[in-house]
Amino acid sequence: MIFTRLIAAPLAVEECDYVNQPVCAPENVAELFVLPPIFGQVNRTIILMFLAALIVVAVLYVAYRRPRLVPTKFQAAVDALVSFVRDDVAVGIIGPEGAKYFPYLLSLFMFILVGNLFEITPLVNFPITSRMAIPFFLSLLTWFIFVGVGVRKHGISYFTHLAWPPGVPTALKPLVGIIELVSTLLVRPFSLAVRLFANLVAGHVMLSLLLVTGVVFVANIGEIGVKGAAGVLWFALGVGIFVFEILVTVLQAYIFTLLSAVYIESSIHVEH
Q1: Residue 128: closest CA among 17, 2, 223, 5
Q2: 180 three-class SS
Q3: How far apart are CA 111 and CA 55, in angstroms?
Q4: With the CA atoms of 118, 14, 221 and 218 taken in that order, what torsion angle do they form, in degrees rounded to the nearest 10?
């Protein structure tokens, strides 16, 4: 399996039919998401996952180990990020009680952000959130938290509010109750995970195919002639998507964290 992303530039020219195909693509797109093991069962995805966690810890440690009255640019940037998650997401969405969930939401946001940014990191070019197991695990963490919060705060009435929602006409309560139960207890963790997963998969596939095609076509312009010039267009389009993906990586980390806060808030204030 040689055809892969631009990781250390392993462009498998021999696997790309650049003469007859308009775009270099592997026979199985899933190949773009398989990182072979390095040490036994430990593959690059696992290493990148721990690296993302380590980066988050290192960033927060360096920024706050010696707080200054006049912060450095790095400390100011990190503090702005932390303040945004605390004030606009945790407290802004959940309310005063959101302060206790702020550490989780900050950890969630920064881990997903770093994991997403691996997509556009040279020599890595692989977002760990494009593997469904990671977004799904994070969504399950959120699920356990918001369901646990609801049960702890309201007891069995947390479920009765879902099954028999107040403020709904009696004739519609059974139908609405079923929808609320299924949506809250079953659909939310899957939708939360799939939203993040699908966006990063789409971006990763487009970047991989366009950038690889551009480089391969230009490298073989002597053999394929004018068609090789199309590689410049493919590469330019790939660069454009690369810039767009910077926004996507940040936005998806924010959306995942925001929805986690919304779900926690809905468990605290079930009457809403």
Answers
A1: 5
A2: helix
A3: 8
A4: 0
- The helix/strand/coil state of 19 is coil
DSSP string for residues in 31-100: GGG---EEETTEEHHHHHHHHHHHHHHHHHHHHHSS--SS--HHHHHHHHHHHIIIIIIIIIII-GGGGG
Residue with tokens 């009696």: 170
pLDDT > 70: what percent of the chain? 83
Per-residue pLDDT tens over the stretch 105-145: 999 999 999 999 998 888 788 899 998 999 999 999 999 99
Residues 210, 235: contact at Cβ < 8 Å? yes
pLDDT, tens digit, 9 for 90 and up, residues 44-101: 888 899 999 999 999 999 998 887 777 889 999 999 999 999 999 999 999 999 999 9
Please state the separation of Cα 197 from the chain's center in Å. Answer: 6
For 54, residues 6+ apart whose C-beta sits below 8 A from its C-beta are: none
| Greatest extent of the chain over all pairs of C-alpha atoms, in Å | 75
**Cα distance between residue 256 and residue 237, in whole Å:** 28
Residue 42's DSSP bridge partners are 39
Residues 6 or more apart in contact with residue 39 via CB below 8 angstroms = none
Distance between start and end Cα atoms, the chain: 52
CA dist., res. 189 & res. 172, Å (int):
25
Backbone angles phi, psi at 220, to 5 degrees: -115, 25
Place of tokens 């309310």: 95
